[in-house]
Write a structure and sequence with these properties.
Layout (H helix, E strand, L loop, with lengths): L5 H18 L4 H14 L8 H38 L7 E5 L2 E4 L4 E7 L5 E7 L5 E6 L6 E7 L12 E10 L9 E12 L6 E4 L2 E4 L5 E3 L8 E2 L1
Helix pairs in contact: 1-2, 2-3
Length: 230
Amino acid sequence: MATVNPTSSGAAATAAAATTSKTNALGQEQFLTLLIAQLKNQDPLNPSDPTEFTAQLAQYSQLEQLFNLNSSMDQLTAAANSSERYSALGLIGQEVVVENDEFALGDNPVQVGYRIDGSVSDASVVIKNKYGQTVATLKATDLSAGNHFLTWDGKDSAGNTMAAGTYSISITANNTDGSSATVTPLVRAQVTGIDLSGGEAKIITALGEYKISALYGAYTNQSSTGSSSG
């Protein structure tokens, strides 16, 4: 019975190793190719250790299961993303809470908000006009962690009604030890459209565009005004 040239077996192993080195990972196709090459190039008079061969088959089975699992997870992720994109259409006409320091004042009172992630001893919402001048200061009534809102009636500290336009807010806050604390400004904006052209749906408002993942909440236009948390 003829035997296989050991040089041929070594060359096959070297080629398989080179392929694995290029990809830096042993994929399903490479594993199967390597296994077939091993069967073709082993010496019939001195076959491979059956125990090691069985272990390699088990590894191949595990690898195949992992590939199937990854494929299933990709399908679930794609389905979830698709559902999220089209459910975003239901936000049109509603008000959403976003992280922003600008808002539009019209004829009605507006809600400005702040988000506390830790604990603070005091906080105030400072409202400024387009020139950066402070027109009103609202004392925070809720200092617990979470999202909170205050209603501004559109009047300055002297009781004068401010003109419609764009205003900004900044938050001044202190920790319990007296040091300055970071509190995130929040505003409400009405959704006028949804952009589905990208990978993640974006909501369109008068203040700009925001990803769905950037929203802190959504409210109908009939939601009550005043101080609230969420």
